[in-house]
């Protein structure tokens, strides 16, 4: 039972809890306490030193908006942002309740009356902006993966195809998202025209920008991984006359999964960074727009609120990478991927 629990903890990245489980089942106390200190104590100590240095140095920096906020001020702003979110949700609930009561009165007076339902159009809060950015980055990442993985597998199986598209990949790969954004904005504005669009144009623009910048690591890693497979495995599949799809899904992709996941992790990280820059530059909804709006606002709390957003971006980036590593350990034969 405990062995299975340790296995799940290691698979999901909660390795710091493994010494606790081993202590509970009575293993060497000194050895497990040492392991617990290495996995929990040392990181906490590093964080404490960082916070002390931040607190001491922040007070020495004077900006046009006042002192650079320290950890305490940033924590206070995080609480304010959450309180604003709760207040906004309260206003939304009150709006919807008033709408329900009004329509109920109309229907009571006239059962055939035509009632209208309106969506709440309040200002998006910091929490709303986080979820908007997450939806956008996942849309761009999924689109990039759907394009990059099939092309990468095809390139890995066919050196001629890889040689043909390699110059294009090498030219397009280093293009900055700031260069793509104007082109994508113009193309989406020209092509994505509808009276009743499924998605907002700003969402489509940001998602396509993320896709264009994040597909290259997955494509290259997939192509190299498939090309590196032992050719005997592919040849055996040919000898026993396995269909091409079976050779791809039963031999090529499983053998290439570790490197493919490395490319996917890099792509997701790039996509997250690109998205924030794209939202900031194009003023599309999301965390990037939140930061830019606070910078333009210029109030005494703006710096603290921007630093809350910066920390949120870092923590979400860490969680996205943890998610990909856990997924890799669950799906791939390689269980040694580092968190």
From TrEMBL:
Membrane topology of this protein: Multi-pass membrane protein
GO biological process terms held by the UniProt record: transmembrane transport
Location(s), subcellular: Cell membrane
Domain of life from the UniProt record: Bacteria
Any Pfam family matching the protein: BPD_transp_1
Entry keywords, A to Z: Cell membrane, Membrane, Transmembrane, Transmembrane helix, Transport
Single GO cellular component term: plasma membrane
Transmembrane as UniProt keyword: yes
Keyword hit for Cell membrane: yes
Stretches assigned to coiled coil: none
Transmembrane segment boundaries: 6-24, 36-57, 137-157, 178-194, 206-227, 263-282, 303-325
InterPro entries the record matches: MetI-like (IPR000515), MetI-like_sf (IPR035906)
Domain ABC transmembrane type-1: from-to ranges: 130-324
Family indicated by similarity: Belongs to the binding-protein-dependent transport system permease family.
UniProt protein name: Nitrate ABC transporter permease
UniProt organism field: Halopseudomonas phragmitis
């Amino acid at each position: 039972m405990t062995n299975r629990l340790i296995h799940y903890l290691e698979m999901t990245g909660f390795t710091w809890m493994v010494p606790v489980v081993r202590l509970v089942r009575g293993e060497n106390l000194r050895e497990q306490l040492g392991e617990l200190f290495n996995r929990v104590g040392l990181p906490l100590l590093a964080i404490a030193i960082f916070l002390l240095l931040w607190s001491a140095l922040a007070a020495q920096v004077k900006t046009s908006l006042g002192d650079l906020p320290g950890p305490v001020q940033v924590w206070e702003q995080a609480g304010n942002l959450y309180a604003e979110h709760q207040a906004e949700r309260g206003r939304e609930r009150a709006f919807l309740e008033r709408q329900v009561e009004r329509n109920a009165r109309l229907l009571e007076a006239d059962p055939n009356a035509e009632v209208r339902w309106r969506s709440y159009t309040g200002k998006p809060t910091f929490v709303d902006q986080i979820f908007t950015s997450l939806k956008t980055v996942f849309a761009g990442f999924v689109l990039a993966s759907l394009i990059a993985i099939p092309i990468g597998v095809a390139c890995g199986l066919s050196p001629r195809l890889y040689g043909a598209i390699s110059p294009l990949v090498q030219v397009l790969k280093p293009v900055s998202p700031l260069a793509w954004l104007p082109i994508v904005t113009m193309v989406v504005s020209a092509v994505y025209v509808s009276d009743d669009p499924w998605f907002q144009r700003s969402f489509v623009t940001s998602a396509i920008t993320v896709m264009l910048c994040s597909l290259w690591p997955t494509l290259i890693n997939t192509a190299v991984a498939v090309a590196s497979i032992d050719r005997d495995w592919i040849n055996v599949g040919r000898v026993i006359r396995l269909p091409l799809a079976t050779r791809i899904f039963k031999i090529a992709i499983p053998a290439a999964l570790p490197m493919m996941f490395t490319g996917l992790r890099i792509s997701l990280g790039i996509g997250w960074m690109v998205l924030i820059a794209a939202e900031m530059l194009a003023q599309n909804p999301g965390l990037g727009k939140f930061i830019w709006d606070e910078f333009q606002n210029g109030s005494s709390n703006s710096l603290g609120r921007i630093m809350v957003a910066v920390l949120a971006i870092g923590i979400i980036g860490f969680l996205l990478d943890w998610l990909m590593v856990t997924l890799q350990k669950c799906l791939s034969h390689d269980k040694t991927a580092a968190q």
